[in-house]
Structure formats: C-alpha cells, structure tokens
Design goal:
The chain is mainly α and 139 residues long. Helix content is 76%, strand content 0%.
Length: 139
C-alpha cells in the first residue's frame, strides 16, 4: 500500500468526523433534540451531543494529540480504531436518518465508516510484526 492510500484514508476519516459532528450540531440548531416530546424516546435528546463528541474524538485523533494518546489509547491502534469506526457506523445509520429525507445518505456514510473500520480490523490481524511505516500512516 502506498503513501497515497494512507492519505486518502486519513482524508476520508477527517470528512466522516466532520459529517458526524455537523449532523449533531444540525440536530441541536434545528431543535430536533426536542423530538422527545413527540416520540417519548429519551435518546433523541442525548444523541446529538454524542455525535458531536465522537466526531470531535475522531477528528482530534487524526492530528495525533497527546491527550488522545494518553486517555484514549485504543484509538491509536489499528484494532481500536477499527472497532471505533464500526461502532460509529452502527450508531450513525440510525441517528443521521432523521437529518435526511431518505435512508440512502446515512446508509452510504455508515457503509464508508464500516468498510474503513473493517479494513483497520483486518490490517490489525495481519500486520502483527513489522510494517511500522504502514501503521504510522494509518493510525
């Protein structure tokens, strides 16, 4: 895998983090968090805040901050990053569904996160020894 592939994956991670955080901000600004009054689902109120927090976490880890390496070490490994992306994909397919009129946009976004997460998990299984430059590019 070349350096270009690592850069493309980083750009996709940054874009997906921004989409997740912006979708959370949009739910707060458009007052969709008060949908709880109609549906009586408590998670509708808290989900935008989680979306913003997890989107910011995904964005900050791309720039290798010491804080993230100290307190969220699992995001600095391929396996941890992969599991985190798979979790975000499962969360976002349902939470972003309310932002769009169709299920297609959240499905595509969640599929991209899932594929990248699965890619990280597979790489963590096969790249046990060596390949440090590849791990450094991706994580």
């Amino acid at each position: 895998m070349s350096a270009t592939t690592g850069k493309v994956i980083k750009i996709i991670n940054i874009c997906s983090a921004l989409v997740l955080a912006i979708a959370g901000v949009w739910r707060i600004v458009s007052l969709q968090i008060f949908k709880i009054l109609d549906t009586w689902q408590c998670f509708d109120f808290f989900m935008p805040f989680f979306m913003i927090l997890l989107g910011v976490m995904l964005l900050v880890i791309e720039f290798k901050r010491d804080f993230m390496e100290k307190y969220f070490f699992f995001l600095t490994t391929l396996l941890g990053r992969g599991i985190f992306n798979v979790f975000l994909s499962s969360m976002s397919v349902f939470s972003i569904n309310n932002e769009f009129n169709s299920l297609l946009a959240p499905f595509i976004y969640s599929l991209i996160l899932f594929v990248i997460g699965f890619f990280y998990i597979i790489l963590s299984l096969f790249l046990k020894d060596g390949h440090e430059e590849l791990k450094e590019q991706l994580v």
